[in-house]
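Readers of this paper often ask what the protein records in our data store actually look like. The remainder of this section carries one protein's record, kept here as part of the documentation.

:::
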Amino acid sequence: MGHGRNLVETQGDGHPFISTTIITMLLNKQLEDEMKKEEIFKIWLQEQNFDSKTINSRVSSYKRLCAAEGDLDDLYNKNLYEDLLNRLSYSIKDEKSNAKPRHKVKINGNIRTGSASLKQAATLYKQFLLNSGNVKRTKIQSKAQKAKGYSTKTGKIISKKQNNQQEENQVIRDSYSRFIARFNIDIDDFFNYGIEETIFAPLDYAKKQWTQQISKLENNQEIYIRRYGEKGNTFLYKFLYWEIFGNSNILIDPTKNAIPLGNIQHATNSVRNNNLFNYECSHIFGCTKNPLLFGAVWNICFKPKIYDPLSGHVTMGIWPEEYQKRLRSDIFNRFKYCIDSYNTFTKTKEIHDKITNFEDEIKEESKYKLKIEQYIDNLKSSQNTTKKVEQYISQIKLKVDSKVLDRFFKDAKEQWEFIV
């Protein structure tokens, strides 16, 4: 290292350790100079446990991209990366029409498969940037440190076994990335297939049914929502909708999804496990305690089961974000009329203001009791006073904890957000 200082020094107990100053110099100055970007990318691919053939192919494609399109890090930092990914797309339709590729990389063989391979490399490199953060100072440091046999946490020399264990703990694997890379699937084809195979209600049917949904809510007819929170707390939504819409016929879906499933099956003439298999009935925008959106067929679809995890909170990384962005774009184009109608309804009816006003009222104990009595009188006059109704009324009379009310009104406002 120079400067008359040894790399390995000893502590008072005689154990060797690496000087913090030396570590800093190694990592901040020499490491980045000695390791090329493709080597850093290669190490990251190894940590994802890709096989050597796939790694070499992706690194080779990465180098070709850099040579033709410019440094990928620079493109990412200049917000030009998505443009690159778009230009790397080359569909079957493009192939049939002999369209020229929009990227700058020269391909001697099949343009579609060659472009797909380049796009795979570019997509993996983007994930490498997103998942690794400042990778040169994290994972790559650990590789260099392993070679030298020391720990930055303690400054002490550590055994090869300890190094291997630490490296295993740092491995990050993404099954979607590995699946797509393994079978050389084009990213656009992957997402587009998921959307194209999703089954939606016909627009004319959706418009008609949407008008019926509004009529049910405003004319005190039976309309459904999903159960809310702990057993018994759903009455708060029934209470709210009686206050806002004068509807005392808000019902709870018996299985959480029976009503939406029945509605979308009727709209599409598709019956799950009859003429439709391995599709999941799913809400697009959620809002299952909103009586309009819970049963509206334009907010419901049949998704292929292999894509359904991408629409929820289970899948992590760039995959659900990109899938949901594309799906919502399709929905906005497909059901613009219904979405605009919903937003207009929410605005003109001043739903948010009414929820806030109701919140202010029932948080005062005297007003809460008065409202409850009025609501109970309405229930008794509009329904048979069966044992079940009497039990329900006894639940309503119980005092609701203030924290429960706070959570409820927060949820209620979210249920009626504009769809944008």
User: Anything to note?
Assistant: The chain is about 60% helix and 5% strand. The longest helix spans residues 111-132.
